[in-house]
Amino acid sequence: LDLREATESTLETVQIGGLIELQHRSGFAISTGIQWSRIAEKYTVEEITFYEKIENTLISYSIDMNQDTVNQTYDDILRTSTTKTKREGFNNYRLLDVPLLIGYHIKNETWSLGFQTGILTNLNLSTKGFIYDENSQLIDLAANQKNVYESSIGIGFYVGLTGRVALNDNLQITASPFYRRNAGSFTLSEGPIVQKYSWLGTNVGLR
Q1: DSSP β-ladder status, 69-107 and 130-132
Q2: Angstrom distance (rounded) from CA 174 to CA 120
Q3: What is the pLDDT of residues 71-81, one digit of tens each?
Q4: What are residue 121's phi and psi, to 5 degrees?
Q5: How far apart are CA 63 and CA 74, in angstroms?
Q6: Are 128 and 41 in contact (CB under 8 A)?
Q7: pTM for the whole thing?
Q8: How far is CA 142 from CA 36, 135, 145, 152, 163, in A?
Q9: Alpha helix (H) ranges present in the chain?
Q10: pLDDT tens, 132-152?
């Protein structure tokens, strides 16, 4: 855990999706659809490699002036060199969710304000990148996801505000600041760590 905390840092989260909304004249509404999210993290890994090589090396050299001879002595010597390599990259956690939201809106002819709350059911979690495992070995997430991460993470919770402004009779621009929290851990239940995410963001779209 300490090694992962030292080498990983969270970056941005991106969401793309679409919703179908049914709104009652009282202002209450229910909506559902599909949503794709990507959580990005940066990892920085420093790898130190030691090389050892035995070389037969000249260790002494002498000249006998009387006999006019040169004496050379060789012996095996162990030489060690160290190479430090710094590698940076990105880990991606991609979520495919189905939201089910209820809300309430007040509106007039040109604008509306409201709130939404509900759940998101995760259909799929996929991963890409590199992390350290419990043995301090660097592993490829794409090849080893089933050994580290769940294939889906269950339910998440969502709450947000919604503002809409009419551009014309048939088109509105919307902005929805929100808070989202995933209840389930991304990692397997039998794994050594629990990895959960929550974030604040804003969805912007057309309606």
Answers
A1: unpaired
A2: 20
A3: 777 778 888 88
A4: -95, 120
A5: 15
A6: no
A7: 0.76
A8: 18, 18, 6, 15, 39
A9: 2-7, 141-148
A10: 887 878 888 888 889 899 999
